[in-house]
Amino acid sequence: MDVLKPQLMWIGTRCYRVNLVTAQEYEQSEESKAYIEEDLYEEDDRELDYDIQLKEGGKLQTSFHVPSAFFAMIIGNKGATRRRLEAETKTQIIVPKQGTEGDVIVKGTSTKAVTACRQRIELIVLGARNKQHFTHFLSVPMISDEIKSNFIKFREKVLTELPSGFNLDESLFQKPEKLHLTLCMMSLMDNVDRTHAAQLLQDCRESIIELTLAEFGPIEVRLRGLQYMNDDPSAVDVLYAKVESEPLQRIADQIMEYFIANGLMQRQYGHVKLHATLINSVFNRHHRHSHGEGEEGEERRPHHNRHHRDKFDATAILREFGEFDFGAQKVTEIHLSQRFSTACNGFYEATGLVKL
Known about the structure:
Layout: E1 8-11, E2 14-17, H1 23-26, E3 53-54, E4 60-65, H2 71-75, H3 80-89, E5 91-94, E6 103-108, H4 111-129, E7 136-141, H5 145-161, E8 180-186, H6 191-216, E9 220-228, E10 238-243, H7 246-261, E11 275-280, H8 281-289, H9 315-321, E12 325-330, E13 333-338, E14 350-355
Antiparallel strand pairs: 1-2, 3-4, 4-6, 5-6, 7-8, 7-13, 9-10, 9-12, 10-11, 13-14
């Protein structure tokens, strides 16, 4: 870990530094006393967020969903992580048996202890979730007839009008039926995760989207001009269309914050980078291995290894078509889209959506 740029995680309005340690470092000797971390906050606002119930015998208890894929991370090597958390917070943690589903339960004698233990478990889950491949993304479909038609013209011009010797396979281009703006990416591990994410998107309608529409009116965005993801135009892996829209930027940023606060995303960027992917070297790999389903987003997760990605020279494309106008479209829907999927209209399958 770079000590000058440590990994950070947000839970609600608080930012935590993640210390990466091995399971062996979690082990404590029998003689050592439990270490209780000093509480830097006199009052913990998060206590109000949790459903903590009083059970028989005066014990307090909270139960909450954790995808079964993360149970092993909570338990740790030979139970080391669970024992450490229980010792530090003076609580009891009950995790469903391997191969079963169910809530994780935390029991303790004080609200503060139960809250502290649950918060630490959430940090573990956030860290584990961040290491998974993305399964879903929030998208704005950009599939009007005008934009699809202009994109097809752009593709044909790039493939036929560039200087002799330029070689770019058609499979690297996005499918016209799947053109979209990417708002943010996430890993949803089970049906509960997916239902939760779809509900969060619905929550955003009233609290975020409708307020912005009331101020700005209907939102129209234009795709015009080209940009690339890295610093060298001769070795590009993603080429995308530029998007400028103040109201959509506001909506995207606030939705991202809402999903972060609810534990389905980790903060990686200060603002959403609105973009419509046009050419992606990943598309060619998926074309060879899986029916040509080009996919969005691998370039957006920092820990993914990009060194083995194919590159292409975009210098001529940028020179000849750097200000290409793909047209404008009103934003009418925001989708929770499933990666590696195709709906009957050719776009991605929607796990959830809201209409503007």
